[in-house]
Amino acid sequence: MTAIRFDPSIDLEVCEAMCEEFEDYLASDVLYWQMDPSHPHTLAWPKLTIGGGLERLCRLRAYDDNLSAEQSARLERARHRLETLRDAHAVHYVAKAVRELQSRLDAWEWFLDDYSKRPGELAAYYPSEVRDRLKIDLLIDALRNAAGMDEQDISRKSLRLQMLDERLRADFIPGEFIWDTELAAAFLPDHYWWLHGGLKESR
Fold first, then answer.
1. Which uninterrupted H or E stretch holds 59?
2. Which residues lie closer than 8 Å to 139 by C-beta, 6 or more apart?
3. What are the phi and psi torsion angles at 148 (to 5°)?
4. Can you tell me the distance from the alpha carbon of 143 to that of 149, in angstroms, rounded to the nearest whole number?
5. Which run of H or of E encompasses 173?
6. Rounded Cα gap, residues 14 and 51, in angstroms
7. What confidence tens digit (pLDDT) does each residue in 84-108 have?
8. pLDDT tens, 161-193?
């Protein structure tokens, strides 16, 4: 299995572009927001979501030792800006994050359903598809700390994730970290076990 590599310079540009559009995104009804196509690399980017922003910030913090002083300062400004907008629009942020969490849980379950039918074909896609599993994890953490969050709702979604993890474990083969080795220290296997291995190619 070939490890997936990420480019921290592009991740940083994505975060900065998200800052520019995050307030409009939170005020809209759109869940998967198409960013301004005039930004560099836009065609290579996924659409703006809260989970996508959290994922990139998480990766960039892990890459911090490899960032220049100028890049680290830009990252801190982007993180502060996103958190400021989150706090200023807390109700919209929570509502949008809850919608995305539901969407990511659905997408992850669909992948596991498809894998159960075609393991030989879909096992190879695990390193990219498991990014939904990471976004789910980050969204749950963000919502647990959010004011006004329905605790019963987050408990239900956490229980659903536990059930999906039980399905995953049945076909999971522990092994090497599946992304850049530079990120491994930030995603230790005691919690992020699903980033350390892959899926069986037959069941």
1. helix 50-62
2. 50, 51, 54, 97, 100, 101, 104
3. 85, 5
4. 7
5. strand 172-177
6. 13
7. 999 999 999 999 999 999 999 999 9
8. 999 999 999 999 999 999 988 899 889 999 999
